[in-house]
Design a protein that fits this description.
Elements lengths: L6 H29 L5 H24 L7 H29 L4 H24 L15
Helix pairs in contact: 1-2, 2-3, 3-4
Length: 143
């Protein structure tokens, strides 16, 4: 049986489920646009990114980070700023891991995704949805 789990841990677990699901949706949309609709892969990547991250934002705002006082438009912009920083980190880190350290690209992607997932959670927790005050609570909430 689950013991009391601090709200920040619950949020992190919810974020992991949401992120994995949205990543799968991102790849599926990319594949369908390129293979079925014969859309350029770069255009498809942008479209799939925007759709998946918009869904991720909505789930984040209303399921993971509910209770935020940040206005919708402001937090949506901040969410995408975090995502853009993440994309820059992803490309840079994978280039170093693959080109310099000769790691397989899939291994590199997994390593970077773990780091990036933690980065995204904490940036959205403190910056986008401004819920860092929860760390100060003396009594954690339960499921």
């Amino acid at each position: 049986m689950l013991q009391k789990i601090h709200i920040s841990v619950r949020r992190f677990l919810k974020m992991a489920v949401t992120s994995i699901s949205c990543f799968g949706l991102d790849v599926l949309i990319l594949f369908l646009l390129v293979e079925l609709l014969l859309t350029n892969y770069l255009i498809s990547a942008v479209i799939s990114f925007i759709i998946a991250h918009t869904i991720n934002y909505i789930l984040s705002r209303y399921w993971i980070f509910k209770g935020t006082k940040t206005k919708f438009a402001q937090s949506y912009l901040q969410f995408f700023l975090v995502a853009i920083v993440g994309i820059i980190f992803l490309v840079s880190a994978m280039t170093i891991l693959v080109e310099t350290l000769n790691l397989h690209y899939l291994v590199s992607k997994i390593l970077v995704a773990i780091t990036l997932g933690l980065f995204n959670f904490f940036m959205n927790y403190f910056f986008t949805f401004k819920l860092g005050h929860e760390f100060k609570r003396k009594h954690p909430k339960t499921f």
